[in-house]
Design a protein that fits this description.
By secondary structure, the protein is mostly helical. The chain is built from 21 helices and 2 strands. 73% of the residues lie in helices and 1% in strands. The longest helix is centred in the C-terminal third of the chain and has 40 residues. It holds the Pfam family TctA.
Length: 512
């Protein structure tokens, strides 16, 4: 009851007219920056951080709540419409979301994303309010061995489950891991794969790789496809900006499964929302493959609903981990931690005692921000879809410019622009050769975590490798990984057997 009383007090502060205005401003600004290719939600928070210094702490963090969640919707908007996610957490939404847009269902795709974001984020906010003590206990049970097992599980699942060819998936993963280790080794201080170039001592940014692989590569691919394939037709958004009863029935189970997958990852430092979005997408793809008529690849609504719910559930829970544990589990949460420290506030268990009014007002603002985003984005889904009507030369030229501006804004280095171009060309070749991009991104995101975790685990055990498989959580993760591999192998064997039977029947019919 004390929590409910505190939360009601927080709602009383948030629903004050001035604070409601700050929530609205934050939602609009976050969405506006999030839809710009190369920027994204974390950049929205970083760019708008100085703007809030003139505000008192409560107003500043209420506005940040709107920016935080609004930026996530902006990421998904560009992922769906332009196949250009603002953040790596929106990558999984590109696969079926952009396919829906290409088939003329962009408004329905945006509505699916908006509802999924609301369900995932709202559920996470409820859990954060009532289960903060359990979050602390759950997160504290993870050590280096658990993090390594989790990263290994992500590597295996993304390379085998998300790729049509396991070989291509593993090769893409290896490329991502190779890019991740470029730079100065954090333990020994030795340069790795830098070719003695000081420009590579800091490594290659994930933002640069994401923008190059998904945005710039897409621009080059579309330009070449339309130049050499005259049958390609432009995307024409049409239809309603809401979901039919059948679409709601189709998406509802995926929203629920995505939310369930995303919630635990909000308190685990495992790369933010990327892993749960890919895992939820992979699960929906496997479930779809068991249908008589699989829909993935043609714009399956479940392939968009699940990652959106998972990503926002993880984001909401990560804010709970930040407030209750002082643990930033994503880049955006780390920026939020810096914002707290600017005001002389240290998130953690003591924050609920020393700054209780601010904490409960901020938690209440999460609920208000979710409702505001749903209210402003569902009616505007059809308007956002009109972006597809911009002539392709202007549209993709603009995307290319924003890609370059976004990368230059993060590093102020012309070398990163050259790296961006090179990675864009590599991404284009991978698109042409039908290599999956998801394992590469996951390799970059979780490669450093896996390397650091295995080092820490071995150093703490004096080099004893059995420390990597010690503990019930570790064994559970490895058991799930083996089950995923077995499921994938069985599915592939059945697909091959079915294809052979179909060919044999066709040959027999031809002989007759």
């Amino acid at each position: 009851m004390d929590m409910l009383t505190s939360l009601m007090g927080g709602f009383g502060d948030v629903l004050h007219p001035i604070n409601l205005i700050w929530v609205l401003i934050g939602c609009f600004l976050g969405t506006a920056v999030g839809v710009m290719p190369g920027l994204g939600s974390s950049m929205a928070v970083a760019l708008l951080l100085p703007v809030t210094f003139a505000l008192e702490p409560t107003a500043a963090f209420i506005m940040f709540a709107g920016i935080y969640f609004g930026g996530l919707f902006g990421d998904s908007t560009m992922a769906i419409l332009m196949n250009t996610p603002g953040q790596a957490s929106a990558i999984a939404s590109t696969f079926e979301g952009h396919a829906m847009a290409r088939s003329g269902r962009a408004p329905q795709a945006l509505a699916t994303a908006a509802i999924g974001a609301f369900i995932g984020g709202f559920t996470a906010s409820v859990i954060v309010v009532f289960l903060a003590p359990w979050l602390a206990e759950f997160s504290s049970s993870f050590g280096p061995a658990e993090y390594f097992a989790l990263a290994l599980f992500a590597f295996v699942s993304t390379s085998s489950m998300l790729a049509e060819s396991a070989i291509k998936g593993l090769m893409s993963l290896a490329l991502g891991l190779g890019i991740a280790v470029i730079g100065i080794d954090g333990v020994s201080g030795a340069p790795r794969f830098t070719m003695d170039s000081p420009l590579l001592f800091d490594g290659i940014s994930l933002v640069t790789v994401t923008v190059g692989m998904l945005a710039l590569a897409e621009v080059i691919y579309v330009a070449c496809r339309e130049r050499f394939d005259p049958t390609v037709q432009p995307i024409r958004p049409s239809g309603r900006a809401w979901l039919s009863r059948g679409e709601l029935k189709e998406a509802a189970p995926a929203w629920a499964r995505g939310t369930a997958i995303g919630l635990p990852f909000g308190v685990i430092p495992a790369g933010g929302s990327e892993l749960p979005t890919f895992l939820s997408f992979g699960l929906e793809k496997k479930l779809d493959a068991r249908r008589a008529q699989p829909r993935f690849g043609t714009g399956a609504i479940r392939g968009l609903a699940a990652p959106e719910a998972a990503g926002n559930a993880t984001t909401g829970m990560s804010m709970g981990a930040l407030l209750s544990l002082g643990l930033p589990v994503s880049a955006t949460a780390a920026i939020m931690l810096a914002a707290f420290q600017q005001y002389g506030i240290q998130p953690g268990p003591l924050m609920f005692e020393r700054s209780a009014d601010l904490v409960w007002t901020l938690l209440a603002s999460f609920f208000v921000a979710m409702v505001v985003l749903l209210a402003i984005n569902l009616p505007f889904a059809a308007l956002w879809a009109k972006l597809l009507l911009i002539p392709k030369p202007y549209l993709y030229a603009g995307i290319s410019v924003f890609c370059g501006l976004g990368i230059y804004a993060t590093s102020s280095s012309t070398a990163d622009l050259l790296i961006l171009l090179g990675i864009g060309l590599i991404g284009f070749v991978m698109r042409v050769a039908d290599y999956p991009l998801a394992p590469l991104i996951i390799g970059m995101v979780l490669g450093p975590l896996a390397e650091t975790s295995v080092r820490d685990a071995l150093m703490s055990a004096d080099g004893d490798a059995t420390a990597l498989v010690d503990g019930p959580i570790v064994m559970l993760i490895y058991a799930l990984m083996l089950a995923a591999i077995g499921f994938t192998v069985v599915t592939r064997v059945r697909e091959i057997a079915a294809a052979r039977r179909a060919r044999r029947l066709a040959d027999e019919d031809g002989a007759v």
